Inverse folding.
């Protein structure tokens, strides 16, 4: 009785299937898919919705008029609130460590964070991880320096989203100037210019 030699094409197919199952069923899923999607971002297929020029008359925000009372906790557990950033343009990003598209767009957000004027533009990266340690490990492993928070209370309706990543741009007076659901490349001259234009619209 003779056995036929295995064909390399068949072995490669099964090897690919096994490798795919390992990626999909283990902790490798998020970093691998995130890396693939990050590569796709580099092709320019995804672009964010740029904040439009503010339609409202620029006004100086006051603590009583600022509409967003969003209680947060910092990475080290200290209390914070979105209204403490009134007068600035605030980029709010909802993400989680288990979300590949979130991981894919984060390097671009980190690059943008390095470029903006921190006196006028603030980042609020809100992790929706049920286990905060997972978010802390991602931040430490990747060396991200943008501020990361956890929600200390349910998100207000204006920030609620059925999908992540979701990014909102809050103007200096607390009005939401733009909202983008899904992965995007925010490290572009156009997006940075739109943030600066929005930041310059307030009389601080």
């Amino acid at each position: 009785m003779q056995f036929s030699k295995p064909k390399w094409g068949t072995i490669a197919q099964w090897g690919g299937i096994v490798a795919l199952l390992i990626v999909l069923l283990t902790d490798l899923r998020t970093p691998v898919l995130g890396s693939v999607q990050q590569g796709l971002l580099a092709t320019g297929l995804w672009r964010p919705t740029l904040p439009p020029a503010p339609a409202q008359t620029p006004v100086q925000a006051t603590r009583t008029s600022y509409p967003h009372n969003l209680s947060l906790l910092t990475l080290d557990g200290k209390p914070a609130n979105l209204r403490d950033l009134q007068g600035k343009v605030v980029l709010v990003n909802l993400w989680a460590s288990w979300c590949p598209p979130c991981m894919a767009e984060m390097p671009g957000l980190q690059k943008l964070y390095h470029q903006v004027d921190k006196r006028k533009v603030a980042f609020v990266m809100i992790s929706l991880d049920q286990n905060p340690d997972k978010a802390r490990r991602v931040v430490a492993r990747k060396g991200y320096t943008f501020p990361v928070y956890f929600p200390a209370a349910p998100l207000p309706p204006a920030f609620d989203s059925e999908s992540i990543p979701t990014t909102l741009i809050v103007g200096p007076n607390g009005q939401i100037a733009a909202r983008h659901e899904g992965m995007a490349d925010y490290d572009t001259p156009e997006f940075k210019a739109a943030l600066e234009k929005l930041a310059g619209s307030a009389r601080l």
